[in-house]
Specification:
Number of helices: 4
Strand content: over 45%
CATH class: Mainly Beta
Radius of gyration: 20 Å
Number of domains: 1
Distance between the termini: 74 Å
Helix content: 10-25%
Structural class: alpha+beta
Strand order of the largest sheet: 6-5-4-3-2-1-15-14-13-12-11-10-9
Shape: globular
CATH superfamily: Lipoprotein localisation LolA/LolB/LppX
């Protein structure tokens, strides 16, 4: 390879690096992730209905409905109670995130047991997927590249690609690749990996609507990392600001919880 060819490639590489650094000027990966979290989740106490539908080969095979109650903690993460509404056989069962502990409460046995956020709730959706959370509190981000990707609405968008590594045992995944829209910080797509480094699932964010003061995704399409014909659609409806007392978010209080609150 000639000297001039090497010099040309070196200058081109420098140009790519400068362009990437310029587009993220004055911003760290953490700041980008924080802004994306603010788009995904209202940064306030709220309740929302979450409808999950599981498909295989395009056919609906299972579904469930939960109501998520989320309160922002002083540390910047959410405390969450998930009330299972449907199916009827599971109605009244609860999931509670308190700090980095997840509790499952059975309203029939009146017992509370610790659970893993990685355990599946329905199809490709895990317990951790329906627990409101800010990624920046559970993962350490790094900016790896700029890429043009297709969003959940099948539009090409210029994005930052972030690599997220888990920082605590509560994080549902060991690592995540997250694509964030450079124009508006909207999360576009995510890939979730297990401890072995294998791809577990791919998610696309779509159904953008004005929700509690910001345009947010109201639907997440989750494809199985091993079998793309297995798809779970998670739809969020009826977001409402709601005052949620701190006292609700401990396992001793769970027997007093109803679908309408206290």
């Amino acid at each position: 390879m000639s000297y001039f060819t090497k010099l040309k490639r070196s200058i081109l590489g420098m140009g790519i690096c400068v362009a990437m650094c310029s587009s993220a000027s004055a911003q760290t990966a953490t700041e980008i992730l924080e802004k994306s979290d603010f788009i995904r989740n209202p940064q306030q106490s709220f309740v929302v209905d979450v409808n999950l539908k599981q498909y295989e080969n395009g056919k609906l095979i299972d579904k469930t409905l939960v109501k998520t109650h989320s309160r922002m903690s002083d540390e910047g993460q959410f405390l969450t109670i998930v009330h299972i509404d449907k199916p009827v056989v599971d109605k009244g069962k609860l999931l509670l995130r308190n700090d980095n502990i997840l509790w499952f409460y059975d309203n029939k046995s009146k017992a509370s047991v610790r659970m893993s956020p990685r355990q599946r709730l329905l199809g490709n959706a895990s317990n951790g997927d329906v627990i409101t959370s800010n990624f920046v509190m559970d993962y350490l981000p790094a900016l790896t590249s700029e890429e043009t990707v297709f969003s959940g609405d099948k539009q090409e968008r210029l994005s930052w690609k972030l690599k997220l590594d888990s920082t605590n045992d509560f994080a549902p995944y060991d690592s995540v690749d997250l694509w964030v829209d450079q124009e508006n910080y909207r999360p576009l797509k995510a890939k979730f990996y297990g401890s072995s480094g294998k791809l577990l699932k791919v998610a696309w964010y779509r159904g953008w609507k004005k929700v509690l003061g910001e345009t947010r995704p109201t639907e997440v399409v989750i494809s199985d990392g091993f079998n793309t014909k297995k798809v779970t659609v998670m739809t969020m409806n009826n977001h409402e600001p709601f005052t949620l007392p701190q006292s609700w978010f401990n396992k001793e209080w769970l027997p007093h919880f109803t679908s309408a609150g206290a």
